[in-house]
Amino acid sequence: MSEALQISNLHKRFGGLIAVRDVSFSLAPGEVVGLLGPNGSGKTTVMNMISGALPCDGGTIRLGQTDITKMKPHRVAKQGVARTFQLVRPLPTLTVGENVLLSLAFGHRRHWGREARELVEEKLAFVGLAGRGDEQVSNLTYIDQKRMEMARALASEPELLLLDEWLAGLNPSELKIGIDLVQHLQGQGMTVLLVEHIMEAVRALCSRCIVMSAGEVIAEGPSAEVLAQPAVIKAYLGDDHA
Amino acid sequence: MTMKPSIAFPVAAAVLAVLAAAPLFIPDYWTGVLLGMTGYVTLATAWALFSGPTRYVSLATVAFFGVGAYVVAVLNEALPYPLVLLSAAGIGMILALAVGLSTLRLAGVYFVIFTFGLAELVRQTVSWWEVNITYTMGRYVFLPFEGRHIYWQLLALAAVTLLISWAIGRSRLGLALKAIGDDEVVAAHAGIDVTRVKLLLFVISATLITLVGAIQAPRWTYIEPSIVFNPTVSFMTLIMALLGGPMRLWGPALGAIPLFLLFEWLSVSFPDHFSIILGLLFILIVFVMPQGVLAKIDDIRKGGRA
Ligand SMILES: Nc1ncnc2c1ncn2[C@@H]1O[C@H](COP(=O)(O)OP(=O)(O)OP(=O)(O)O)[C@@H](O)[C@H]1O
Ligand SMILES: [Mg+2]
């Protein structure tokens, strides 16, 4: 059975700093996997390499049967990879609806015209922004901007969704809504790679976790087991707590 | 500006018809003014096609404009006129492709400086070529056109340019351009081939600009590099588009009309201070209404209601 995403021996250097060292892991279709690790451990860098934003210095990335290692971001998107950004990046001159329309028009599946407008409305409704397509992005609250970014990612009907701390910065009730939303996607069979610091979310969403520290994978396995490993606790909290 | 297409098209067609008939009823001097104005309406609209949404401020306008005029000067006796225009468009397109491929990766002020340098480079190259290779200092354009013939051609080109701008604004391409102007990274991750879109628009815009130069060439009769590669053309185009608002279909045109008339008057009344006044106006527009007058009017209207 082919993996949805297979990463082998990924490497990334920034000058003298090795940000990602020999990272390998894979995601089965329909799996929601957590990518954890302390600040600066290389999680976003891995996401950036998968989505084509950063070139790899070594290793390969396969999406299903396709080698996407050297593809530019727009080609990776067309292959069916969608992402959100650690810091939300709404497009301010576009309306909320146009932000979503963008990835419908250019993403994995291409839609335009009436059909696209209906799909925009559908995606907005899914994330809880029903009927707000004509609003200016600047009117949206922080969580609504995050919702819009999710709708934009989903609009391309991706095969793989990369969420980089999508739940960060939400208050407890918003967090619950966010978790529900990802669970809903999980129910629809979406494959998700989720970078997250909020353990509550990781426990609720991820059957499996990969933990990075200083650019390397230090643990991998079922969430409950991995989160209890001394090496993981130590990486997160420092030596004193191990 | 938000007329329904069902009304806007007949209105635009009627305005076009009136403008086309105008030379039959007005003195030649005013046909000349209309001609110059239509030229700048086209330049500003074509400029904004690329530079408006992408916010890549190009000062290469006169490079393409001048190349258009020069192609006509060189070929006007060798080829039938339609082929001369076609050659000008083709050469403008190739030049735009070469420039685009080498510069669209530059960002912000580097792009501005490069395009300014490019205009100068093209002018120097043409001068050098004429002096050292062809031994001609200037060229004559012998085409049997009067002012109104040139004006009609420019009017048609202006209509085509506005139509292209309108069509792009409603298309996927228009959406892609706006997204690129906002955030190239997000645009790319949404599946847009950012480099290709920018290149395509730059080429369309530059080809139209080249054609303005080509069509206007017979007006000078005598052409030399310092005439057709005058950097003022680039700056005026830029100011006009900025004044009207480069993100709107009619913005550049509405900026071009009053400014052209103002510049006409200034260059006649204050020929010595023209450049200084141009510079001051430029600064004023950029500071007071960076989004253009149309946006300013919108703001004021919204402010009044709130
Ligand atoms: N474009 C870049 N240029 C230079 N160094 C970078 C670049 N991007 C990331 N780094 C460095 O690479 C390392 C890994 O960064 P990365 O953003 O991948 O960490 P992260 O795990 O996502 O951290 P966080 O939890 O804070 O988001 C850090 O030391 C960071 O400073
Ligand atoms: Mg990160």
Automatic annotation (TrEMBL), chain A:
SUPFAM superfamilies named in the record: P-loop containing nucleoside triphosphate hydrolases (SSF52540)
PROSITE patterns: ABC_TRANSPORTER_2 (PS50893)
Entry GO MF terms: ATP binding; ATP hydrolysis activity; L-isoleucine transmembrane transporter activity; L-phenylalanine transmembrane transporter activity; L-valine transmembrane transporter activity
One GO term of the biological process aspect: D-alanine transmembrane transport
Entry keyword annotation includes Transmembrane: no
Annotated Gene Ontology cellular component terms: plasma membrane
Superkingdom of origin organism: Bacteria
UniProt entry keywords in alphabetical sequence: ATP-binding, Nucleotide-binding, Transport
Ranges where the ABC transporter domain occurs: 5-239
PANTHER family: AMINO ACID ABC TRANSPORTER ATP-BINDING PROTEIN, CONSERVED COMPONENT OF ABC TRANSPORTER FOR NATURAL AMINO ACIDS-RELATED
Protein known as: ABC transporter ATP-binding protein
Organism: Sagittula salina
